[in-house]
Write a structure and sequence with these properties.
The protein is an alpha/beta fold. The protein has eleven helices and 18 strands. The chain has helices spanning about 10-20, 25-40, 55-65, 75-80, 100-105, 115-130, 160-170, 200-220, 245-265, 275-280, 310-320, and strands at about 20-25, 45-50, 65-70, 90, 110, 135-145, 160, 185-190, 225-230, 270-275, 280-295, 295-300, 340-345, 355, 365-370, 380-385, 395, 420. The strands form two sheets. Strands 1, 11, 12, 13, 14, 15, 16, 17 and 18 form a nine-stranded mixed beta sheet that branches. Strands 2-3-4-5-6-8-9-10 form an eight-stranded parallel beta barrel, surrounded by five helices. Helix 9 links the parallel strand 9 (about 225-230) and strand 10. The longest helix has 22 residues, at about 200-220. It is elongated. The model has no long low-confidence stretch (mean pLDDT about 95). Bound molecules: pyridoxal-5'-phosphate. Pyridoxal-5'-phosphate binds near residues 50, 192, 272 and 273.
Amino acid sequence: MERFNITSDRLRDMAEEYGSFYLYDGAIIEGQAKSLKEAFSGIDFLYSVKCNPYPKILQTLCDLGYGADAASAGEVLRAEEAGFLPEDIYYVAPGKTRSDIRRTWGKCTLIADSLDEVRWIDEEAERAAAPDDAPIHIGLRINPDFGFENGDPAPSKFGVDEDQAIAALSHWHGAAGMMSLRRVSVKGLQVHLRSQVLDTEALRIYYHKVLELADRFGEVCGGLDFVDMGSGIGVPYAPGDQPLDIRTLGKAVEEELCTFRKKWPGTRIMIETGRYLTCQAGLFVTTVVDRKVSCGRTYIILRDTMNQFLRPSLARLVVHYAREHAPEGREPLFTAADAFPFWVVKRVGGADKSSGSAGASDRMETVTLTGRLCTAADVIAEDVSLPKLSPGDAVIIGNAGSYAATLSPWAFSSMEKPTEFFI
Ligand SMILES: *Cc1c(COP(=O)(O)O)cnc(C)c1O
């Protein structure tokens, strides 16, 4: 919370006024965005809109030279509204409908997710283009013939298996002008296998393999306009997580790129990133409504919990079912049991200061934090030690800048949409 350009007094006042809200700090986002760009040369970055599509965040990143990784037609339109240029918006998602393709036509680069989709885009291009227009360049998402971190290749609903893609592209780009596509040409590829990686070497090996794959496809396609290497760059969530050394990673990628560039100097190389830019730049603030003791356990009832910020409750649920096992991450729904830090700001008239969940206080107590929903799964922290809480006090949760407001079932039980602020 120290990184935020706001005092705890101000947060408390806002909590009193709004009950619950998200706060995004533009300076933190800018810091993350600049450090990433500085660490990597020769790479263009795309912001993954789905992690937080708040308009001012999109505008901030657009101004800083980021492109947009859009995961739906709606995200293409939001990126366009925020000022991203069509050539900097890439639309990557499985199952695009004809309507999705039409709505986003001319507003982005389409990255097809199946061979049929390539054909549908081709048909749409026939509808939309004049007879003497140049072919439209699109990309294709590949499910590569390698796994992440020495893993085996795995079945996936995303993209086209590498061998199937090579076979189709050899045909489409085949010799003697045997193009069976009339209006589009596949001139880019996208791969994404893993999010939230904190191991520099694992990421280096992954990028190395993607560039080798791009070389194979470059041969088949007669060169590529772009290679989108997907995401992977993680952030420390839990107290024991070591942050990635992005300078070392940037240097390593630069070396990997050297060989590729010699052969393919004109190909745009991109990395997608969502949470690295915004996760730590968001706070979720809510207020204590009530407290009660049942069979010796103290419950704090908060104004908004999983309805406005799902992930902390989901973490409790996963841990509950995993019992003694350490559950594996499943992004973006679940990262780790202790991924979300808590702070408390006492109401005016209480002990007027903020303190972390492990902070010292003369009146600590062990409590369970729940919300107002009619489900027992509505728990965001169990048996945690916090300063004694009373109605009107604020509870603040960190790591709330990505997959937070946008990934929460706020309409459940006819509750309210989260309020969001950007400073
Ligand atoms: C969700 C997603 C991202 C963003 O992942 P982060 O871990 O937030 O960086 C990037 N690319 C694709 C294809 C995704 O599905």
